[in-house]
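Reopening closed ticket. The problem is back. First fold of the pair:
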Amino acid sequence: MALILIRGENNSKLLNAIADIERHGNLNLTSKPKVVDAAFADSLVEGILNSKLKTTSNVAAAFFVKEDTTLSIIQVKKIHPPAHVVVVSHEYGAYSKLEYVLNNAQDFQGYHSHKAVNDGMIDYKVNKKERHIKNDKLNSYK
């Protein structure tokens, strides 16, 4: 599981970045995004990058994804979200700090997953009864 921190100018850019990560990055969120203090997020990112940030953020959110850290970094590099996305590895000291903050944080308002919540496709042709077809290749989760 990887921990992703997103910093941005406003809530709509953060919501778009989360949607891009989920849709175009093909990453599966295991937790709802949580609100993180923007100043705290900026200080964590400065510690990870070992340099000063050019711009500060107004809002920040963080969440866990099912994929491992390496795959998450590769997938995030492929997309161009409208906010600053940082995949925080467990090797950094910031990981435990951010994990502690997320346990007490409130949910980020406005986020709704676009992925299916069902078990798979429905086959309507068999005896006129609904029958769920279990397909692990579908991009869905519970």
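Second fold of the pair, where the issue appears:
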Amino acid sequence: MHALAHPSTAPDPSEVPWGWSPMFRMPLYKPGARVRHGSSWETVSHVGLRRHEMTVYLVGRTEPVDPLELELAPTVFTTARVHQAQ
């Protein structure tokens, strides 16, 4: 019996999945983030998810705010694996 050596067909872990770009941008609402609501700057208290709806709670307010009413600079995310030095 002969065992043939085949090159590895596993994808390179740093390769981006088909149809994806290497990076994407989206707002990241997290506690402490500064957002623009109307003409004033506010601070995010916490974020809620209910029935596939996201709501953002601002410091000092009891009612949630729709994220579409807020302005926040997008955060850049990568879709490729990044190896970290240890």
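Update: turned out to be a display glitch only; the data is intact. The two ends are 43 Å apart (CA to CA). Strands lie at 23-26, 34-37, 40-50, 53-58, 70-71, 75-78. Please close again.
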